[in-house]
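2024-03-11 09:14:02 INFO worker-7 job=invfold-0412 stage=load source=structure_tokens
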């Protein structure tokens, strides 16, 4: 029967269909409204009644066969597709996961936060000040005129006149006082980068200082000592002791270097401190000329100031022999400093 030729071809096509989409287009081609089967069924009407029955029977059988073949091929393809995806998207649940790398705050950041925190708790306001400073703020206003020998001690980076990279945070004193416009009491602190032409195991050209300033009526050395002791104990522990040693800074009078009992041996004397004491900061009562430069009357008010190196605090706190690793971005080194919970 020639009616079966297309049907056989259709069956072969269906069995060979490579995709579900190909199955669908074969269905349309053979079983769709405009398809071959519909045309054949329509042709029945032209046949004599007796032939029509037999032909109708055959066509129904073919139709059922094609439908069954399509369903079967679809199922085969779907299963194959599923298996392919299973193979391709295979997830090995036994592989170890990718562990997140937890960072820690940089040790200097930790120390900075700690220092800022204690100053705030002691009632100081924190303020910033320019790192590129005029010579006047950095030196002159701090009682270090052009010919002052102390200026040589600073190994200054000079920028275009009148600018320098500030050699210490002390110019902040002048800025804070002038901004306060004579207001009392003045309790301010700052924390930031300072610059000197220094570079060895314990010095880097860019380093940080923290500095505090108090101006009020009747301020004296006991106030200075009390505040510095509170700060030192907060950072290094309640067992710390401090001592003030007479010293010289042009912007304080009298001036004192503050030593603290060595945090490593608690004052017993060790290889690091030798004497049990470690020099930690510079301080003193604000020089009358500095008060004047800040717009205060030295006959009416007095003040104290102290400043220290943040890296030095970090070195003492962590027992570091060198300062440079703090700025060399070696994660193996930095990872050793678990973040402080401040
Ligand atoms: N500015 C001084 C220094 O850099 C430290 C200091 C600050 C001393 C405040 C006295 C008062 O060494």
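2024-03-11 09:14:09 INFO worker-7 stage=emit residues=342
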């Amino acid at each position: 029967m020639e009616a079966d030729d297309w049907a056989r071809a259709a069956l072969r096509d269906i069995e060979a269909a490579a995709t579900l989409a190909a199955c669908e287009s074969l269905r349309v081609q053979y079983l769709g409204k405009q398809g071959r089967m519909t045309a054949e069924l329509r042709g029945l009407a032209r046949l004599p009644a007796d032939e029509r029955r037999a032909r109708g029977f055959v066509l129904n059988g073919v139709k059922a066969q094609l439908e069954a073949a399509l369903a079967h091929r679809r199922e085969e393809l779907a299963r194959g597709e599923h298996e392919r995806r299973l193979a391709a998207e295979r997830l090995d649940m036994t592989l170890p996961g990718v562990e997140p790398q937890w960072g820690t705050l940089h040790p200097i950041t930790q120390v900075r936060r700690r220092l800022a925190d204690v100053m705030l708790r002691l009632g100081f306001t924190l303020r910033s000040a320019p790192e590129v400073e005029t010579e006047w703020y950095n030196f002159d206003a701090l009682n270090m005129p052009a010919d002052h020998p102390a200026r040589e001690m600073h190994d200054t980076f000079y920028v275009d006149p009148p600018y320098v990279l500030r050699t210490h945070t002390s110019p902040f004193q002048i800025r804070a006082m002038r901004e306060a416009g004579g207001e009392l009491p003045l309790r301010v602190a700052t924390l930031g980068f300072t610059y000197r032409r220094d570079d060895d195991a314990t010095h880097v050209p860019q380093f940080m200082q923290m500095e505090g300033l108090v101006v009020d009526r009747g301020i004296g050395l006991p106030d200075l000592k009390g505040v510095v002791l509170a700060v030192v104990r907060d950072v290094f522990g309640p067992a710390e002791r401090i001592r003030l040693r007479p010293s010289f800074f042009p912007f304080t009078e009298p001036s004192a270097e503050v030593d603290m009992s060595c945090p490593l041996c608690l004052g017993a004397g060790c290889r690091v401190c030798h004497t049990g004491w470690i020099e930690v900061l510079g301080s003193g009562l604000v020089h009358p000329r500095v008060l004047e430069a800040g717009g205060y009357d030295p006959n009416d008010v007095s003040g104290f100031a102290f400043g220290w190196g943040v890296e030095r605090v970090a070195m003492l706190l962590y027992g570091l022999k060198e300062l440079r690793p703090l700025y060399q971005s070696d994660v193996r080194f930095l990872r050793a400093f678990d973040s402080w919970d401040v």
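2024-03-11 09:14:09 INFO worker-7 stage=report msg="The two ends are 93 Å apart (CA to CA)."
2024-03-11 09:14:10 INFO worker-7 job finished
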